[in-house]
């Protein structure tokens, strides 16, 4: 599946480049028809550029003066072209190639050969499409969030009513999205019983950040441990496995749902700590959702894990009646 994703995405980039080259040729023809002198300048610039190689080859010991002359000539031609474009109401970059992504120039790869963020986002989008997550996010987002589902009556010993509490949580989560790039050390920890809106709120945040072009990985703790086990112990490690593993560390936001449902042992404790600690050190954000209370988290996980969570996360408690029976 991974290889097919990559193949499809590279084909998309190729189509984008072909389209932009054709559009550039249309713009050139349009300008040349209105201002023939610009065509003559472009042809002269092309010929002048070829002179550089010829000059170096013909006089390798003393070519600096000739190169200075060529450079001055090129500068004059470019200046004349810029003036003509401006005088004829064309933007200065009108005759340059447009890129949908200026970082990778629509190739999918940066100067260092690594996958561009736009390439990674396309991979994530494919994954969401395959998992039907995009359909869920269309239904569960900040625009469809209904505060009226929550009771405005006092609940047990809580100071705020469930509705007031959820209003506070909603405000914090919206701020988390708005200030995502400005507050690199902000992380969220949702806890409470099932049916109180934790997963819905996770989906709200995921959708809002995906719409901003951020790379979001949303996995249950159980699935994350499967990915880790595949990466650590599978002798036939595939590109799918390597990508799934690396994205746990590289994505802009990692959402870990249902923390505590995975099998708990020394391996899971170590790996959960490794993911959380590595992301915190890198300034990569995390959102954790669990049905467990902070005390239960402290009892199940090592001190290293619980101290990182309670020291580096904003703790948000969900409470009230099970909303699954209220709809």
Automatic annotation (TrEMBL):
SMART domains tied to this protein: AAA
CDD domains in alphabetical order: AAA (cd00009)
Residue ranges annotated for the AAA+ ATPase domain, each copy included: 184-316
One BP term from GO: DNA replication
Coiled coil: none
Keyword terms, alphabetized: DNA replication
Any one Pfam family match given in the protein's UniProt record, by short name: Bac_DnaA
Family label: Belongs to the DnaA family.
Protein name: Primosomal protein DnaI
Record lineage: Bacteria, Bacillati, Bacillota, Clostridia, Peptostreptococcales
């Amino acid at each position: 599946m991974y290889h097919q994703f990559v193949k499809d995405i590279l084909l998309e980039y190729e189509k984008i480049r072909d389209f932009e080259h054709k559009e550039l040729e249309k713009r050139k023809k349009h300008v040349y028809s209105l201002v023939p002198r610009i065509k003559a300048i472009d042809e002269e610039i092309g010929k002048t550029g070829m002179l550089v190689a010829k000059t170096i080859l013909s006089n390798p010991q003393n070519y600096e003066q000739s190169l200075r002359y060529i450079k001055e000539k090129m500068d004059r031609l470019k200046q004349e072209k810029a003036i003509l474009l401006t005088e004829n109401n064309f933007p200065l970059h009108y005759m340059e190639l447009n890129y949908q992504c200026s970082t990778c120039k629509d190739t999918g790869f940066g100067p260092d050969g690594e996958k561009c963020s736009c390439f990674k986002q396309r991979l994530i989008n494919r994954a969401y499409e395959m998992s039907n997550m995009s359909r869920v996010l269309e239904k569960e987002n900040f625009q469809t969030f209904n505060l009226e589902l929550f009771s405005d009556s006092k609940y047990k010993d809580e100071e705020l009513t469930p509705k007031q509490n959820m209003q506070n949580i909603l405000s914090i989560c919206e701020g988390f999205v708005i200030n995502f790039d400005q507050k690199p050390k902000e992380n969220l920890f949702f806890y409470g019983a099932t049916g109180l809106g934790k997963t819905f709120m996770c989906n709200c945040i995921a959708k809002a950040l995906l719409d901003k072009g951020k790379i979001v990985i949303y996995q249950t703790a159980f699935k994350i441990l499967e990915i880790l086990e595949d990466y650590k112990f599978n002798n036939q490690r595939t590109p799918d496995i390597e990508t799934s593993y690396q994205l746990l560390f590289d994505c802009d936001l990692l959402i870990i749902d249902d923390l505590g449902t995975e099998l708990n042992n020394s391996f899971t404790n170590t790996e959960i700590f490794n993911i959380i600690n590595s992301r915190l050190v890198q300034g990569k954000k995390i959102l954790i959702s669990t049905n467990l209370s902070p005390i239960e988290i402290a009892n199940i996980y090592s001190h290293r894990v619980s101290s990182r969570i309670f020291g580096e996360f904003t703790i948000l408690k969900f409470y009230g009646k099970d909303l699954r029976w209220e709809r």
